[in-house]
Amino acid sequence: MRRVAAVLTVGATVVAVCSLSSAAPSKRRTATKPGAVYRVPLRRSTASPSTSAPQLLTTVAEATGPWVGIFVAPGVTRPERVLGNPQPSGAPLVFLVQEQQPEWLRVLLPVRPNGSAGWIRRADVKLYAHDYHILVELGAHRITVYRGTDVIDQESVGIGTRDTPTPGGLYYTKELLRPPNPNGPYGPFAYGLSGFSNVLSSFAGGDGVIGIHGTNDPTLLGRDVSHGCIRMTNAGITRLAHVLPLGVPVEIRA
Q1: What is the DSSP secondary structure assignment for residue 236, as one 8-state letter?
Q2: Bridge-partner residues for 7, per DSSP?
Q3: Each residue's pLDDT tens digit, 3-55
Q4: C-beta of residue 176 within 8 angstroms of C-beta of residue 194
């Protein structure tokens, strides 16, 4: 199975709890059409059975057509809902695979309520594998990023306040976006996750998606300060943006 390439989406709209709704496209090295949305391949994972045990590998499904039908069970002929590809941000539609059958895949969905899952047709996607995962410990205000069993980054983070807490659970990175101002409150990069705020149904023009992003105020790290997003250092989020693929599991614990 091929490894998934890390993807950078430079989007015109960032729909996150972090209120990045005015994010604008950044310039690329090559001539491009103003206002377009881009996917920039970065580094491919080099995970192999010799370096990562099979149980540490994550399978990601990426949509190949303009939409993917979500079914309540394998073999059902009518989808319960349909998700468009690409996403509103311009990022490709990806799913975290939880179970595989010959013609069907059970996947975690980037929809409300948090933890929603459904079945998709294997023929509607292409599959990749990688060995990254992220653990966020709310009580410790800490993020730890793993490749296999190796820690590639660990640092203090800012999390949601008591009124707008960061929701616990299992999610995955569904998009990577570049805010218009790398020195602004969201730093140079922002990951949108598959999870949503449990108390905000909408925020700053978005639908309450939670994210992981940088900050222009490192003094807020280690504290309860956000509307639900996870804030980390600009150096840390930049490092991750140049390594991680989409579809990385993000476990958020109390």
Answers
A1: H
A2: 41
A3: 444 444 443 344 345 644 333 333 222 222 222 222 433 334 444 444 566 67
A4: no
> Which listed residue (18, 141, 227, 229) is catalytic?
229
The residue from 130, 213, 227, 242 that is catalytic is 213
Angle ∠(189,195,200) on CA atoms, nearest 5: 95
Backbone angles phi, psi at 123, to 5 degrees: -70, -15
Matching residue, tokens 């001539």? 31
Residues 238 and 149 in one domain: yes
Distance from CA of residue 24 to its chain's centroid?
19
CATH of the domain at 126: 2.30.30.40
110 and 142 share one domain: no
Say whether 93 sits in a helix, a strand or coil. Answer: coil
Neighbour count for residue 170 (Cβ, 10 Å): 17
For 142-172, the pLDDT digits (tens) are 999 999 999 999 999 999 999 999 999 999 9
Contact yes or no for 114/229 (Cβ under 8 A): no
Is 242 tagged catalytic?
Answer: no
18 is catalytic: no
Residues 218 and 231: their CA atoms lie apart, in Å, by 9
- Please check whether residues 80 and 142 belong to one and the same domain: no
The answer to whether the beta carbons of residues 229 and 214 sit under 8 Å apart is no
Q: Is the dihedral of CA 66, 100, 75, 96 positive or negative?
A: negative
